[in-house]
Amino acid sequence: MKISIFRREFYEVTPMGNEAEKPNIITSSLDFLVNWGRSNSLWPFPYGTACCAIEFMSTEVGRYDLSRIGSEYVRFTPRQSDVLLVAGTITYKQAPILKRIYEQMAEPRWVIAMGACASSGGFYDCYCTVPGIDHIIPVDVYIGGCPPRPEAFFDAMFDLQKKVKDESYMKQRAESIKEQLEMIKAKTAEAKREAAATVHEKVVDVKDFMKEKEQNLVKKAQFWKE
Predict the structure, then answer these.
(1) What's the DSSP call for residue 131?
(2) For the whole model, what pTM was predicted?
């Protein structure tokens, strides 16, 4: 059809058939739906300290288009992130900060070690460099290279998506509930022990007080008798 930029084109919208009016049913599992949503909405938290962070920045441009896997929404707060991307050298002075950021992330959370420095310390064989961030926090995917190309980061994200799809939401939920129940039982037992110890101390104090009172009364009785 010939298109003219000087006049408006009108398109006739044909009504859909009766297929859209028929009820449709999709059968699936809860694990599949949850993992499908999680694997296509992995929001990264970039913890960049060296040249690997520059390579990660290039994944946001149109040439690579990180949004095609649903990870273009880069967040700089751990409370809104799913993937902790450590790109660069980590020193022992930074280790507590990195661990605190990881602990502030909500479950489920994943970690990617981008580059040789984050994976194994790189060529920094010295007293101040951590020989791999897996000495501080658990790592799900490692990316080699110094620095790795953006394509390597995409491969890591694809591997992470496969890992997320293989997880079981119901199993994780059952394990979480089991851990919570065990924690409640442990706290209940500890509270019972503390309550029993407190009651025992109170009973001992009352007995000592009554014994002292009794001794005072005996002394007074002997005094008045004399």
Answers:
(1) S
(2) 0.64
- Of 42, 195, 26, whose CA–CA distance to 108 is shortest? 42
Nearest to 137 by CA among 96, 81, 180, 80: 96
CA dist., res. 46 & res. 78, Å (int): 10
- Using DSSP, state whether 13 is helix, strand or coil: coil
String of DSSP letters for 143-186: E-SSSPPHHHHHHHHHHHHHHHHTS-HHHHHHHHHHHHHHHHHH
Higher pLDDT, 61 or 106: 106
pLDDT of 17 strictly over 70? no
Summarised one tens digit per residue, pLDDT across range 75-120 is 888 888 888 888 888 888 888 888 898 988 888 888 989 888 888 8
Beta strand pairing call for 141-143 and 110-114: parallel
Six-digit token string for 63: 């040439």
| Domain segments of the chain as ranges | 30-167, 170-226
Query: What top-level class would CATH report for the domain 30-167?
Result: alpha beta
DSSP string, 51-110: HHHHHHHGGGSTTT-GGGGT-----SSGGG-SEEEEES--BTTTHHHHHHHHHHSPSS-E
